[in-house]
Amino acid sequence: MRNLKVGTGLISALVYRPDGSALVALDVDHPTTRARVYPFPDGAGKKSVAVYGARFAVAPDGRRAAAVTFSSLRVWTLADGVKHSFQPQGRGGFLYGVGFPADGSHVLVSGQLPGDNGARQLIAWDPDARRAAWALECAAGEQIATAGDRTATAGAGEAGFYRLKSNVLVVEAGRVVREMRLAQREIRGGVRRVRFSPDGSLLGVAYGRNVLVWDVATGDEVHRLTGHKRTVQDVAFSPDGRLVATGGDDDRVKFWDAGTGRLVTTFAWRIDVVGSLAFSPDGLTCAAGGTKGRVVVWDVDE
To answer: Which pTM was predicted?
Structure first.
């Protein structure tokens, strides 16, 4: 087990580089937020890029970060800190969610068009062409996840002046193919994170003290993972799809069997709130990000 000090604030996102050579941590320490690149094995040459916005995301390959605030989308290249700014909806629109597709080819943003009755949209923005590759009118929310050509989006309750639906939508080939409804009593506090299994067949949704695992093809709930004493902030699947990791405000990380929903083990790493989780590409280690820039990396079979 390794206890790393990679920043100063809450680590709200963790992404391993695909070759396992570095861990990218999003360190939220208001008023400054930084995307920190922590190389393995010794951390030498750690890089830090200042980013700013209301909602953030790190690309799956760990090469870029993005943020949205009001009508603006900003994209940073982490190697050199270069920033580009865009307004996917023009002036007056409101952006409240951001994410990256699995191939990192564009940036996914959710927002609402100008006007009291402005339509909600999910937009695939191409930063190189400076235009939308596609835009879909749907009740897209703050949380965005992808696997292959599937995208899931869910509201987190409130976004600025707008109340978002907390139902979960799955988009494929430019259309909504599945909508999973959450009971009203289940969405107090909103959806904190959505994550696909590696093959895209399952979707984990963290809300309140629970995580729902859905079968995307049928829309059926297959597992309800309960046991955390406070809000769950993140859910992650192992690369082989056999384990589900959950963590949150109770300073606990739990491993579950993805096939049966059975609790496998619980870790207490003493990093306070667990804001983010990530499995290494080879599935041998898992990382958990806590407060004050603390990240714990441990062997999965520990």
So the answer is: 0.93
